[in-house]
TrEMBL record:
GO terms for cellular component: membrane. This is NAD(P)H dehydrogenase (quinone). Its EC number is 1.6.5.2. Belongs to the WrbA family. GO terms for molecular function: FMN binding; NAD(P)H dehydrogenase (quinone) activity. It comes from the Eukaryota.
Length: 228
C-alpha cells in the first residue's frame, strides 16, 4: 500500500527502515592553465569565480609544469610563478570537467601546455578522460594572432581523449558584438589580447571569462547528474 494511507505509527516505522539519503556529491571542475606573463592566469581567476557561483560545484585551479629553464625565462622577462599548485597528468582523471587555458604560439597552444598533453598517454590508454566535458580559454598578442586558431587546434587534443568539447558559443550575448572596444574571446571560449605584454584583460574580457566558468560548470553539473 502507498505509505500515505498507512496509519501514522506504521508510516514512521516504514520511514525508519528506509536507507538514509546521501547528499549529492559535488561536481569537480578543474581549471588547468599555463601562463608565462600572467594574462591567462588572470582569466583563470575569473573563470574559477564563475564556476564557483554554480551551486554544487567545487572548483580547483592548477597550473602545468614549466619546461623552460629559469635562465631562459629570465631573459624573456617572465615574472616568478604564482603559488598555484602544479598538476600531474594523472590528476586530470579526478575531475568531472576541465577548462584548459594557455597562450598562443604561432596560432597554436604554447609548448608548455602541449608537453603536458603529450604526457597524458596513460590516461589515453585507459580512456580515463572519455566523456568528460572540456573547454578552453586563451591569450594572444594581436587581434589576428589566434583567437580562433589557438582553441580550434587545441580541440584535437580533446578529441583523441574522447572528451566532450563545450564551446561558450554566443551565450555571452550582445557583449560579443560590441565594436566600441578591442576585446578578445570568441565562440570557442574567453580570451584576451596581451599586446606587447603590457595590456591586461579588460573588464569585458574578465566578464566573458566569468560567464564561461559559470556556463561550463552548469553543463558539467547536468552531465554528471544525467549519468548518476
Amino acid at each position: 500500500r502507498p505509505s500515505s494511507v498507512l496509519p501514522p505509527d506504521l508510516r514512521s516505522a516504514e520511514a525508519e527502515l528506509q536507507p538514509p539519503r546521501r547528499p549529492p556529491m559535488a561536481v569537480k571542475v578543474y581549471v588547468v592553465y599555463y601562463s608565462m606573463y600572467g594574462h591567462v592566469g588572470k582569466l583563470a581567476e575569473e573563470i574559477k569565480k564563475g564556476a564557483s557561483s554554480v551551486e554544487g560545484v567545487e572548483v580547483k585551479v592548477w597550473q602545468v609544469h614549466e619546461i623552460l629553464a629559469e635562465e631562459v625565462l629570465g631573459k624573456m622577462g617572465a615574472p616568478p610563478k604564482t603559488d598555484v599548485p602544479i598538476i600531474s597528468p594523472q590528476e586530470l582523471a579526478e575531475a568531472d570537467g576541465i577548462l584548459f587555458g594557455f597562450p598562443t604560439r604561432f596560432g597554436m597552444m604554447a609548448s608548455q601546455m602541449k608537453a603536458f598533453f603529450d604526457a597524458t598517454g596513460g590516461l589515453w590508454r585507459e580512456q580515463s578522460l572519455a566523456g568528460k566535458p572540456a573547454g578552453v580559454f586563451f591569450s594572444t598578442g594581436t587581434q589576428g594572432g589566434g583567437q580562433e586558431t589557438t582553441p580550434l587546434t587545441a580541440v584535437t587534443q580533446l578529441t583523441h581523449h574522447g572528451m566532450v568539447f563545450v564551446p561558450v558559443g554566443y551565450t555571452f550575448g550582445a557583449k560579443m558584438f560590441d565594436m566600441e572596444k578591442v576585446q578578445g574571446g570568441s565562440p570557442y571560449g574567453a580570451g584576451t589580447f596581451a599586446g606587447d605584454g603590457s595590456r591586461w584583460p579588460s573588464e569585458m574580457e574578465l566578464e566573458h571569462a566569468f560567464h564561461q566558468g559559470k556556463y561550463f560548470a552548469g553543463i558539467a553539473k547536468k552531465l554528471k547528474g544525467s549519468s548518476a
